Amino acid sequence: MREPLPHDVPAPPVPESTSRRWRDIALLGGLFVLVIAGLAGLAAATGWEETRAQLMKLGLPQVIALLSLSLVNYVLRGLRWHLFARRLGLDTRLGQNMRHFLGGFAMSVTPGRVGELIRMRWLRRETGWAVERTAPLVLVDRASDLSAMAVLLAASVALSASNVTLGLPVALAALAAGWMATRPKLVAGIATLIYRATGLKPRLMARARAAARSLAAFTTLPVAAGSLALGLIGWAAEGVAFDLLLGWMGADIGLAKALAIFTFATLAGGLTGAPGGVGGAEAAMVALLSLEGVPLEVSLPATAIIRVTTLWFAIGIGLVVFPLAERQSARV
């Protein structure tokens, strides 16, 4: 029997995780191109020269300032994730939890951001905790973001007395959702209703109720107040970046209005269900800026820049940290 030639040997199959990662990267790139193309089309309709003139007002120091304020948000929320993990009983270090939190940003543009549940897989590998035991950590983190943004939006709307008054119902809805998501009895009751309506397996139902009971660890006043403070400062830092950006472009509408528009657009984008709120957040931001009298040749580049330096900057950090988090969790 002859020795097999190189071309006779079939190529090894591509691991499913690798192909999935390339698919997600392609989705990221496609969404980014679509948003930029849409904004570019609007910019062309209003005049390239005006848009270019606004972009040229920004130099490297301004870009660094915007990215630094976004980093403040990520670091504070990462610290909050660490505090939540320790409160839940996980024996994980600060660097370990920051790696999980930042690496999850790579999956921010999955529908409903469910891709961020990858953090639970890393925790299962590194600590041995089952998914139902770490599920409350993900839920309370999302609820804390909603609560912080709701308070920030309500306060900024009240102080701005602007055209963003429609943000108050959104703020109330976000605050209610954040509160409901951290009530153990309420979450357990919802799990029971879903079980009765769908006939899910009793074992799965029991796990869901056990996860709901674990939420009690986060309902104490010190934990709730501390997490709210970290979220408020973090999200306010990105709102301040938006205010600075508008000022540099000659469209100073005031800090309160800038915070209201940025927060409302971010929440509104999330309500659309689109991955990362892409499309909805940009549309809301441009529309609200127009209501404040900001011309399109300013609102369009300002929207593009703030989204790149917040959402897409976070995704970029996530793509860098993600492979490290995968390798570290696989070694355990």
From TrEMBL:
Keyword Calcium: no
Topology class, membrane: Multi-pass membrane protein
This protein's GO CC annotations: plasma membrane
Residue spans crossing the bilayer: 25-46, 58-76, 146-164, 215-237, 304-325
Intracellular or extracellular location(s): Cell membrane
Keywords of the record: Cell membrane, Membrane, Transmembrane, Transmembrane helix
Organism domain of life: Bacteria
Signal peptide: none
Pfam families cross-referenced by the UniProt entry: LPG_synthase_TM
Name assigned to this protein: Flippase-like domain-containing protein
Lineage, opening ranks: Bacteria, Pseudomonadati, Pseudomonadota, Alphaproteobacteria, Rhodobacterales
